[in-house]
Amino acid sequence: MESKDIFNVATIEIFRLCLEEFPSEVELDHKKIAREVGEFFPEPTDEVKLFQHLGLLNQKVQDTISWLTHEGYIRVKTNYVSQPSWYVVTPKGLQAASVTIDSLESKPTFADVIKGGVKEVTSAAVPAIIGAFLK
């Protein structure tokens, strides 16, 4: 599990949540998102490695939210220090969500592909999905 893989899967889950509620704000709880993202990857059986795995997922999800905000795909609407903040998709994020993923057979949009969340996306399709989204 590489950092880029976590970023890709986290981006899919973050945008699924944001697009479900658009144009309203949505709470992005990095711990809840990390649990969803974690289901996409094999979980270590060793207790120490599992703890490290969960810590890494939490940190990478926080970093992904920050990156998407900094790059203008989502905007923080209500920022809390000790609890999850509320976000909304920006026009740049909406434009990226409407891009067609030509490398997939049915040529769906990013928004169509992510509707079911990370559980519905195959690991082989993730790089193509994110590659089209970030064009």
General description of the model:
α1 packs across α2, α1 (3-21) packs across α3 (47-70) and α2 crosses α3. This protein has 135 residues and is mainly alpha-helical. The protein has a three-stranded antiparallel sheet. The protein has helices spanning 3-21, 30-38, 47-70, 91-97, 110-114, 126-133, and strands at 26-28, 74-78, 85-89. The protein is built from six helices and three strands, in the order αβααββααα.
Concise structural overview:
By secondary structure, the chain is mainly alpha-helical.
Radius of gyration: 15 Å
Q: Report mean pLDDT, rounded to a whole number.
A: 89
**Biggest sheet details:** 3 strands, antiparallel
Label the overall shape. globular
**Which strand order do you get reading across the main beta sheet?**
1-3-2
Helical residue percent? 40-55%
Q: Classify the secondary structure makeup into a structural class.
A: mainly alpha
Indicate the proportion of strand residues: 5-15%
The sequence of SSEs as H and E is: HEHHEEHHH
What is the number of strand segments? 3
Q: What's the total helix number?
A: 6
The N- and C-terminal alpha carbons lie at a distance of 23 Å
Low-confidence stretches: none
Write the layout of secondary structure elements.
Layout: H1 3-21, E1 26-28, H2 30-38, H3 47-70, E2 74-78, E3 85-89, H4 91-97, H5 110-114, H6 126-133
Antiparallel strand pairs: 1-3, 2-3
Helix pairs in contact: 1-2, 1-3, 2-3
List keywords for this structure.
single chain; 135 residues; mainly alpha; 3-stranded antiparallel sheet; 6 helices; 3 strands; globular
